[in-house]
Structure formats: structure tokens, C-alpha cells
């Protein structure tokens, strides 16, 4: 979705192409009412020009959500200090060789330093509200943490043969069953780059491969050869070569990374729930064309 990614990292922020003022009433047409605020066609078109791959309906929903978040932040009297804004402004200025170059870049975007600072302040306000309202809702169950630790307790090394069709995979599996060498067949038949190494994929943990592949690979005993496994890449035959415990330092790093991933996913879900609650409490009317 258009706005979700922005909400998770940098609340949607657009310093975009400005549209010259016009007497055309169509430009100032109201496309959505959001409580006591409105979104005009001009606002929608401005954002749409910078996001040509996203439909206007999705963009409008994103703008509505941004309005609701800001309104809620104002209602809750969320405050952002000038120091916080100045810190971001200074970081932005450092990307340019001189102050004049920074101001020229803003001028080309049709914005001045004061307006930029105000937009940063607005976005920081929204971010602060989201942290306040959503962070406390994020919960990771002990069962999920234990599952991660179990999944990362070992890594395996396998060889595999990848082909395009199930028929070809069945024929190769029959050759293996008759005693033909797996490594030689991988070199001759596999379309995976690992084929030149006899299908050797090296060591990997459970989350490094696509689930269909990992699920079968980790169920094998050393020396076992799988049945044909279908994935979005094609048809695989897998042979277990070696298993070992993941080194302790690597284990801790992997656990931290996976826990962070779980928190991020949970945070995304909670944002969805919170936004839905905001919308249910709000007065929102969207023009028929964009429903």
C-alpha cells in the first residue's frame, strides 16, 4: 500500500512539484472531507505526479490517513521542539557544499527554509504520536521467540538439482535411485549456478531459503535425498550433506535480527489497527470518483 511504508520509517513527506495557481475550479475541487479539513484535487494531483505508479484512490487514502494523524496529534497537544527540527535541518544542509547551494535546491522545489522546517515539524509530530499510540501495543509472544531460537539452533549444507519441469526432475530422481552420482547429475542437469559445484549450496540457516525448500531440506537426515520439491524457481531434488550447530556469536546476531523483523511486522499490523480506529471515529467523505 502507498502510505504504509512511509508510516513505518519516515511519515509520508512530500516536497514535490508545485502546480501553478489557476482559476480553474476543477483544480480546487474537493475530493475528500476529513473532519473539519478537506483535500483538494490540486493536492491529490501534486502527490500523484510524484507517484505515477500508484493509483489516485490509494494516494487519496494515504492523504486522508495523514490528515487524521495530524488532527489527532493536534488534539493530543503533541509538541516537537525547535531543537529537534533544527537537528534535521542541519543534517539536510550538510548534504550540500554551501548554504547557498542548499537554498538554491529548495528554490528549485518551490519551497523556502521556513516552509521546509514547518513540514519537518509536522512529520515529527506525527511520528511522535504514532510512537505514543502504537509502540505500546506491539507484543511478541514467548512462543514465537522460542520458535526462532529453535529454528536457528543449527545450519545445514545440502546439494540440490534444479530443473524447469516436473517430468525432468522425476527422470533425474530415478537415475539417483539407480545409483548414479548426485554431484555429477547436478553438474550435468541443474540450471542453478550451484550446478557447476555439484549443486553445493554451502551452509545456510532455515530462513535463508524459500520456505518450501527449507521445510524439506531441514527434515532430511544426512545422506538422504528428497522427493521432487516444487518452488517458484522450478523443481528441486535435495541431498543432505552436513548439519552443524550455528556458532554462538552468529546465533545471537541472527536471533536479534529475526526478533527485530517480528517487531517490525507486529508494528505494521498495529498501525493498521490504529488507523482503522481513527477512521471509525472520524467524519470522512470521499468523492464518488475516488471511492
TrEMBL record:
Chain ranges passing through the membrane: none
Domain of life: Bacteria
EC identifiers of the protein: 5.2.1.8
Ranges for domain PpiC: 153-242
Keyword line: Isomerase, Rotamase, Signal
InterPro entries, sorted: PPIase_dom_sf (IPR046357), PPIase_PpiC (IPR000297), PPIase_PpiC_CS (IPR023058), PrsA_foldase (IPR050245), Trigger_fact/SurA_dom_sf (IPR027304)
Uppermost EC category: isomerase
Pfam families reported for this sequence: Rotamase_3 (PF13616), SurA_N_3 (PF13624)
GO molecular function, a single term: peptidyl-prolyl cis-trans isomerase activity
Catalytic activity from the UniProt record: [protein]-peptidylproline (omega=180) = [protein]-peptidylproline (omega=0)
Name of the featured protein: peptidylprolyl isomerase
Amino acid at each position: 500500500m502507498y502510505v504504509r511504508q512511509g508510516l513505518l520509517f519516515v511519515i509520508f513527506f512530500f516536497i514535490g512539484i508545485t502546480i501553478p495557481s489557476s482559476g480553474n475550479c476543477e483544480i480546487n475541487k474537493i475530493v475528500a472531507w476529513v473532519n473539519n479539513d478537506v483535500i483538494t484535487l490540486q493536492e491529490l494531483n501534486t502527490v500523484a505526479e510524484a507517484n505515477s505508479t500508484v493509483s489516485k484512490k490509494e494516494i487519496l487514502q494515504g492523504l486522508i490517513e495523514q490528515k487524521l494523524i495530524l488532527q489527532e496529534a493536534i488534539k493530543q497537544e503533541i509538541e516537537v521542539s525547535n531543537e529537534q527540527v533544527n537537528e534535521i535541518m542541519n543534517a539536510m544542509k550538510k548534504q550540500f557544499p554551501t548554504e547557498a547551494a542548499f537554498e538554491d535546491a529548495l528554490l528549485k522545489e518551490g519551497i523556502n527554509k521556513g516552509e521546509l522546517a514547518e513540514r519537518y515539524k509536522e512529520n515529527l509530530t506525527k511520528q511522535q504520536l504514532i510512537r505514543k499510540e502504537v509502540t505500546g501495543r506491539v507484543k511478541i509472544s514467548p512462543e514465537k521467540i522460542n520458535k526462532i531460537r529453535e529454528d536457528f539452533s543449527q545450519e545445514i549444507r545440502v546439494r540440490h538439482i534444479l530443473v524447469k519441469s516436473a517430468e525432468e526432475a522425476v527422470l533425474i530422481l530415478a537415475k539417483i535411485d539407480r545409483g548414479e552420482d548426485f554431484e555429477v547429475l547436478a553438474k550435468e542437469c541443474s540450471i542453478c549456478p550451484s550446478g557447476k559445484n555439484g549443486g553445493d549450496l554451502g551452509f545456510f540457516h532455515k530462513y535463508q531459503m524459500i520456505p518450501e525448500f527449507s521445510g524439506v531440506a531441514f527434515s532430511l537426515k544426512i545422506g538422504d535425498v528428497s522427493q521432487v520439491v516444487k518452488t517458484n524457481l522450478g523443481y528441486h531434488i535435495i541431498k543432505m550433506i552436513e548439519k552443524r550447530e550455528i556458532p554462538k556469536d552468529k546465533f545471537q546476531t541472527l536471533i536479534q535480527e529475526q526478533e527485530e523483523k517480528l517487531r517490525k511486522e507486529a508494528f505494521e499490523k498495529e498501525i493498521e489497527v490504529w488507523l482503522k480506529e481513527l477512521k471509525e471515529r472520524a467524519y470522512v467523505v470521499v468523492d464518488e470518483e475516488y471511492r
